[in-house]
Design brief:
By secondary structure, this protein is an alpha/beta fold. The protein has 13 helices and 11 strands. The strands form 2 sheets. It has a 6-stranded parallel β-sheet, sandwiched between helices. Strands 3-2-1-4-5 form a 5-stranded parallel β-sheet, with helices on both faces.
Length: 341
C-alpha cells in the first residue's frame, strides 16, 4: 500500500468538530510514522487545539469570514499550500468551494473527501475515521486528545490552590452553546450549583467562551453562594487545564464538553433535541441525560417549533442532574464526597 509523506487535513470547524478528528490523527501517525501532518483550521483560536499536539507538524489558518474574504489573501494561502508539496489532502469541508480551491494547490495528489453518513446514526468520530479507511487505517481507540503545555497546567494548579479547591470535589458548569436550543436555563444551573455546594460540599466553577459572560453572570447572581466565574478569563488551553483538574463537568452539547473528555474529565451531558449518538461525549465514565420520549426528539432544527418551547431541555430537572453528579462523585473518589444533611 502506498506511503504518504506530506499530509494536509482541511477542517475549518468549531472546537468539538476539530477534537473529533484527533483519533483520526492518531491513526494517520500510526500508519505513516514519519509523515509530516499539517492542519488547516478556520481561525487563529483553533490553533491552540493543536499547538502542542505531538503528531501535528504545522497549522495553517483559513479565515473565510475575515482575512481570506480577500482574493489576494486567499491566493497567498493557496501559494503557501502549493509550496508544501502535499501528497495527501483530506478535505472535511467538501461543501465549501474555497476549500476545494485550496485543495487544488496540492495537485497532483491523493485527495480523500469526507461524506457525512445520513442513512444511519453514527458518532462523528467513527464517521470521520471512515474517510481514511481506504488507507488501511483502523481505529486506535476513539478517545479524544488535547495536549496542554506545562504553563497551562501551572496556571490551573495555582488557581486551584489559591481558591482552596485542591481538597474537595470541583464541579464545572458550562451554560453556553452554539445555539440557544442546546442550552439548559441559567435558573436551573444556578439551582444545581446551590445544591452541589450546600449538600455535597463541592466547589463550583462556571466556565464558557466568548459571548457567554451574561449567562455566567446570571448564574452567579441567582446562586446563594458564589461560584468561581472563569468565563472569558482563561485561554483555551488554560481552560483545558482547569477542566483536567475538575471532578466533572455539567454541560450541554458544545466544545468544552468535548474538551473535558479529551483531558480525562467525566461529563454529565445535557442533550435536548440533538442526538447524543452523533455528538455525545466520547469515552467511558460519562452520563447523558436526554428525554427521548418527547415526540420531536431528536431534531436538527436551528430553532424550536414545539408549542412547549424547548421542552426537551426544560424536561431535564435539576434533581435528575444532581443525582447523576452525586453518584458520579461518590464512585469517582471514595471518601471525597461529604453529603450534608
Amino acid at each position: 500500500m502506498r506511503t504518504y509523506n506530506r499530509i494536509l487535513i482541511i477542517k475549518p470547524g468549531a472546537m468539538g468538530d476539530l477534537l473529533h478528528l484527533t483519533p483520526l490523527i492518531r491513526g494517520l501517525r500510526k500508519r505513516f510514522p514519519t509523515a509530516r501532518i499539517d492542519m488547516l483550521v478556520g481561525n487563529t483560536a483553533s490553533i491552540d487545539l493543536f499547538r502542542h499536539h505531538s503528531d501535528i507538524t504545522d497549522i495553517l489558518v483559513y479565515d473565510q469570514r475575515g482575512e481570506h474574504r480577500s482574493f489576494n489573501a486567499l491566493r497567498a494561502l493557496w501559494k503557501q499550500v502549493r509550496s508544501r508539496s502535499y501528497d495527501l489532502v483530506i478535505n472535511f469541508q467538501r461543501s465549501n468551494l474555497k476549500t476545494w480551491f485550496l485543495t487544488s494547490a496540492a495537485l497532483p495528489c491523493k485527495i480523500l473527501v469526507y461524506h457525512k453518513t445520513r442513512t444511519s446514526t453514527i458518532h462523528a468520530v467513527r464517521d470521520h475515521l471512515k474517510t481514511v479507511a481506504s488507507l488501511g487505517i483502523s481505529p486506535n481507540g476513539e478517545e479524544l486528545d488535547l495536549y496542554l503545555a506545562p504553563e497551562d497546567r501551572h496556571y490551573a494548579d495555582e488557581l486551584f490552590a489559591s481558591h482552596g479547591m485542591d481538597m474537595r470535589p470541583v464541579v464545572a458548569l458550562n451554560p453556553g452553546a452554539s445555539n440557544k436550543i442546546k442550552c439548559w436555563s441559567t435558573l436551573q444551573f444556578a439551582a444545581l450549583g446551590d445544591r452541589l455546594m450546600d449538600e455535597l460540599g463541592a466547589k463550583v466553577v462556571v466556565i464558557g467562551g466568548g459571548g457567554e459572560r451574561e449567562l455566567a453572570q446570571d448564574i452567579c447572581n441567582r446562586m446563594r453562594r458564589k461560584p468561581l466565574n472563569l468565563v472569558e478569563k482563561t485561554t483555551m488551553l488554560q481552560l483545558g487545564a482547569v477542566l483536567s483538574k475538575c471532578s466533572l463537568l455539567v454541560s450541554g452539547d458544545t466544545g468544552p464538553m468535548h474538551m473535558a473528555t479529551a483531558v480525562g474529565t467525566s461529563v454529565v451531558a445535557l442533550f435536548g433535541a440533538i442526538n447524543p449518538h452523533r455528538t455525545g461525549p466520547v469515552g467511558r465514565g460519562h452520563r447523558v441525560i436526554c428525554h427521548a420520549e418527547i415526540g420531536c426528539v431528536p431534531c436538527n432544527a436551528k430553532k424550536c417549533d414545539n408549542p412547549y418551547y424547548l421542552e426537551c431541555m426544560e424536561r431535564i430537572s435539576v434533581n435528575e442532574v444532581f443525582v447523576e453528579v452525586e453518584q458520579m462523585l461518590a464512585n469517582k473518589k471514595p471518601g471525597s464526597l461529604s453529603r450534608k444533611m
